[in-house]
Specification:
Length: about 325
Amino acid sequence: MNASTTPLKIREIMGWTSEAPAQAWLTLRGDPSVPASKFGPSSLRVYTPRLAMATWAGRRPYGRKVPIVNLFNRTPTPIAEGWSVKVTQVRDFRGGRMTYDSHNGTDFALVAGTKVVAPAPARVVAIRNEYNRGGLKLYLDHGGGLLTSHHHLGRTLCQVGDIVGRGDVVALSAYSGLDAMVSFPFVAPHIHMNTAIGGQLIDPFAEVGTAEVPLWRGDAGLPEPHGGADDRTVQPTRFDAARVDAAAAALHDSARREVLMAAPELALRAWNLAIEAMVYPTRFADPQAVAALFEEAAPRAQRLDLPVDPALADGIVFGDDDRFLGA
């Protein structure tokens, strides 16, 4: 059996590592440059017990439709106040409330061990394992400053530097990270997918009622599977050494700066800094120094497909629609 077919171990599914306790403490208490995270009674709104228990049991209640259970929050609470899982100030792309204060991506509910595929041709630029913020994560550079990241993974099936084609299997889904520990079994295992252009996290869905362009290639601007396309053409994002050095200088922690700048290539160092700023923006004295990394930032365009094995999925269903609520 190879790595893509060997069943996940429980420690992979939950993301337990030797660093997990210390990283969990960072979430609860914070540190001088990272505010503590916020939880409250409204956080219970993210629970989806019926779907969660079915998915943990290995069932797919919507067949070939992948449930989306949280969307990008268009009205996030201030970064300086800390990561918030409260539901106090939220609006998704449809004008609904299927999100929470600091949610900056799209959550696809998947049976643990589902094959995750590249949503577009890309170069693998980082793999990070942070129990406190998303568990095992894979970062893909699609060129033109477009980055996608895939969180809560159980196992990655590629390495930093690899070129992957549209629809190539890159990981196995799970629910690694602290989130699973505090919400099991009432939140379904899922992948949280972030999308960023020019170092800025954005919603891949177009806001309803506007001329905004979706990043999904599917009909009506919704995520659909790649459909067997064999597309491996990618021109990785280019960076300037002086801008990378300036962004590194804005990072408060010199020890952390040394770790991020130890990558063997300029592009990998640049992406390390950009990713650090997206995950921990308060670690930087000047967030604009990181935004300045990107000489090129392509406009919004329909480039992405559903990041799920097309043998299992042919589209999505929103978690707050009538079919979901009646399951």
